[in-house]
Amino acid sequence: MINASLKALSAALAGKQVSSVELTQQYLDRIARLNPEINAYITVDAEKSLAQARAADARIAAGNAGPLTGIPFAQKDIFCVQGWRTTCGSKMLENFIAPYDAHVISQFDAAGAVNLGKTNMDEFAMGSSNETSYFGKVQNPWDRTRVPGGSSGGSAAAVAARLAPAATGTDTGGSIRQPASLCGLSGLKPTYGVCSRYGMIAFASSLDQAGPMAKSSEDLALMMNVMAGFDQRDSTSLQRETEDYTRELGQPLKGLRIGLPKEFFADGLDGGVAQVVLEAIEQYRKLGAETVEISLPNTKLSIPVYYVLAPAEASSNLSRFDGVRYGHRAAEYTDLMDMYCKTRAEGFGAEVKRRIMVGTYVLSAGYYDAYYLKAQQLRRLIAQDFENAFKQCDVIMGPAAPGTAFKAGEKTNDPVAMYLEDLYTIAVNLAGLPGMSVPAGFSNGLPVGLQIIGNYFSEARMLNVGHEYQQVTDWHTRMPEG
Prior knowledge:
Elements lengths: L5 H9 L5 H19 L2 E3 L2 H16 L10 E5 L26 H9 L2 E6 L33 H8 L6 E4 L6 H7 L2 E4 L20 E5 L2 H11 L29 E5 L9 H16 L3 E5 L7 H16 L18 H12 L2 H14 L4 H22 L5 E5 L15 H5 L6 H6 L3 E9 L2 E9 L4 H14 L10
Parallel strand pairs: 2-3, 7-8, 7-9
Antiparallel strand pairs: 1-3, 4-6, 5-6, 5-10, 9-11, 10-11
Helix pairs in contact: 2-3, 7-15, 9-11, 9-12
């Protein structure tokens, strides 16, 4: 069952071939056996998970089941889950028990899904390798000496190692697509505002977006049917008609126009990755698609723009962690200001401190216009590049990451090299567009992801573009040895 799709698991549960309790226990057993080494999960509570599974079995028996009822999912530890420890990968929230559910979690609960546990992540979602977590680094199941990507690296490793059928992630600058690429998974960052951010601990509010991570595009579509939807508690949530994200699956791709940005195939891209991506695009030509060269001239500015805007928003969002209301508090201090300083010095890791300091600097008097305002203007130009590109094509394709999974510790002392891991993904977040990664092959034995970028609200079409490719390839079915 561990290799089954969500659709197959749903059919097995409906046909009484397996119970939700049995399925959940199978995954809990694998977690107990493999997680101590892989470190994909921060928190597992078998009693809570099995209680949800028993409730799901009762719902199935009563004939009230939905497509995901009884299926276990891993939840990134950035989502508040009532009664569960929610750490965001930080010492600051090491012992925080969430008093309410994030909107995405409540949607899974309403669907009758089972929560397997909370997955490891870069601290406050700041990182591209899952090495900044207070709870230790996550190992890539394809090669235990390498990173799984980040910040949703725990979710990616959990699904790749079959410690969960699927998982949630969040994507601020590529944190779903990059780990999906490095771990051989399918992952989708929806259009900004399609999934509510309520109860999702904020990093950069104008960029953060929840999304699904699974083995196939079809699985992503089923998860999106649950995760998407308007939430009045989130001022950035978009009020739109409910849509079925599986509705276009199976549609032929004849006539599909694929845009190939010349900037995506220039310096910085690993040769092996480039070859795999170009072979995947050739497969699309065989499926009836046509390709057109396009240009995204301001893409090169996306990393400096992002590393002005995201830290600026982070410095504001993380100011709430001061030791007064919740989270870590320093044991010894002389006065209120000393408590603030010591609490934050002890509670935050090096990367989080670095970004808070950068963000505070660019927002300070005398520098706001020179940095923050200028970055916002460049963000508009990046979005306009995509607007112009979609006049010539239906989807844009290219690499999801510049290379395959790198060795643990290889880039920890070089923040700029780490930031360049998101070279091809950040522009999508700055524009608020949907983007996804699907497995496209291997380079030197390590997975490579193909990135598919769509216009606003074109998730259903993108998911079919990924699905049709997965009907003629088997990269998404490959599993790490052991």
